[in-house]
Amino acid sequence: MASAPDQPAFTSPRCPTHQRAAVATCVRCGTFLCGECTELLGEAAWCASCLAFVREHGAASLALKLTLGLGTIALATVPLAMLLPVNGVVDTGRATIVLPLLRRLPVLNGIAAGLGFWLSSRELRRLRHVEPSPARTWARWTRGLSWLNLACVLLQVFLVLRLVLGLFASGPR
Fold first, then answer.
1. Which of 6, 106, 161, 164 sits at 20 to 30 Å (Cα–Cα) from 15?
2. Phi and psi (nearest 5°) for 133?
3. How many CB atoms lie within 10 A of CB 92?
4. Helices 62-76 and 134-165, packing angle to 10 deg
5. Distance in angstroms (rounded) separating the CA atoms of residues 56 and 130
6. What is the DSSP code (8-state) at residue 171?
7. Cβ(110)–Cβ(81) under 8 Å?
8. Per-residue pLDDT tens for 17-41?
9. CB 104 within 8 A of CB 156
10. d(CA 116, CA 72)
11. Full-prediction pTM beyond 0.85?
């Protein structure tokens, strides 16, 4: 009976699925991957199961990150909007008071608040059954910034209504 030939002491790593020479390893689990099994995300190699897990439970979406940036920019523009001239002169023949006051309405803050509430709620629902992750932190920061933007919207609308309607005017009428 002939014995099997001796295996060399050093063999190249092999893909466990296809028994081919490995060309990469998964960045998450370390499994050796052949060219057919390698999934690229950015410049990193992933196995199919880890990539599916990361896409389902992993990082925050780009839309959420962009919304957080929009909310930050919108919040930073609030002092600038408050410094705009009001031009509250009322002419009985013309309605010139409306256009200058519209510049003070917080459109960017309203958009940032709406998008922030919608995307953060969607992201938090997606991550409801997942252990704490960076995506959940991004979603909570976006939600908090959305509350601040909503407060700025309400404050600015209140101030514009005060100017238009003459509410809380100081002194006798």
1. 6
2. -140, 165
3. 5
4. 30
5. 10
6. S
7. no
8. 888 889 999 887 888 999 898 888 7
9. yes
10. 11
11. no
Q: Per mean pLDDT, which range of 44-48, 66-70, 124-128, 140-144 is the poorest?
A: 124-128
pLDDT tens digits, residue range 153-171?
Answer: 888 888 777 776 765 555 5
- The tally of CA atoms less than 13 A away on the side-chain side of residue 141 is 16
Residue 152: phi and psi, rounded to 5, are -65, -40
How many other C-beta atoms lie within 10 A of the C-beta of residue 89?
9
Structure tokens at 98: 């409306």
CA distances to 89, 90, 154, 159, 168 from 163, rounded to whole Å, are: 10, 11, 14, 6, 9
The per-residue pLDDT for range 37-56, each reduced to its tens digit, is: 888 876 788 888 887 777 66
Greater model confidence, 148 or 50: 148
Residue type, 15: C
Long-range contacts at 22-27 (CB < 8 A, ≥ 24 apart): 26/50
- The answer to whether residues 105 and 160 touch, using CB atoms and an 8 Å cutoff, is yes
- For the chain, the straight-line distance linking the first and the last C-alpha, in angstroms and rounded, comes to 116
Place of tokens 């256009």: 99
